[in-house]
């Protein structure tokens, strides 16, 4: 058994889901600025996530699904996941984003499971509240250790791929740490760096 864990936003998907969601509200630039600072490690992830989701209050839940079902996937994402599974990897996604996007993409991209967050809605509208598996800076590392124990996988058998500060916690528990088109804060903790938007380059590195 081998394990490969991907971040979703700006790794398997070309962009940040929450920035796409903010666009119809005219808040894309404001939300994107907070997202960028969080990914650079300048803001606490939990505080930045809850602040950004609060700004989405009133957005129609149907619009959320429409946007999340039409996100642009990273070049090579589907092919890379298929190749990894052919090599015997279990492929999982950890995302500080939202299940509307990650669970939908699972069937398209072919990964085995996704752990992400849930946008709370009432009467068809977002309330500005959020909960889920990936709310904190430590969440990805915490979930990775639990998954390794569950599957009987060692850190030597684990590959992690991400781009931002909230991926650092999972980098601490894997021997192969891939920074994909990443922020400098994550590159410093990686031992594989890919700076081209082509996930198939990963296959030659592991």
How is the topology of this model organized?
Blueprint: E1 2-6, H1 17-22, H2 28-39, H3 45-55, H4 61-68, H5 77-86, E2 89-98, H6 99-109, E3 113-122, E4 125-132, H7 139-151, E5 158-162, H8 168-171, E6 176-180, H9 184-187, E7 192-194
Helix pairs in contact: 2-3, 4-6
What does it look like?
By secondary structure, the chain is α/β, with parallel strands linked by helices. It has a single domain (2-204), classed as 3-Layer(aba) Sandwich (Rossmann fold). The chain is built from 9 helices and 7 strands; from the N terminus they run βαααααβαββαβαβαβ. The chain has helices at 17-22, 28-39, 45-55, 61-68, 77-86, 99-109, 139-151, 168-171, 184-187; strands spanning 2-6, 89-98, 113-122, 125-132, 158-162, 176-180, 192-194. The protein has a 7-stranded mixed β-sheet, with helices on both faces. Helix 2 packs antiparallel against helix 3 (45-55). The protein is globular. The relative contact order is 0.19. The mean pLDDT is 95.
The CATH topology name reads Rossmann fold
Q: Considering the protein shown, what is the CATH homologous superfamily?
A: HAD superfamily/HAD-like
Overall tally of structural domains: 1
Helical fraction: 25-40%
Mean of residue pLDDT? 95
Going across the biggest sheet, name each strand in turn. 4-3-2-1-5-6-7
Count helical runs.
9
Assign the CATH architecture: 3-Layer(aba) Sandwich
Please give the alpha-carbon distance between the first and last residues.
15 Å
CATH classification class:
Alpha Beta
Strand content: 15-25%
Outline: globular
Report the uncertain regions: none
Radius of gyration in whole Å, from Cα? 16 Å
Structural class by helix and strand composition: alpha/beta
Number of strands: 7
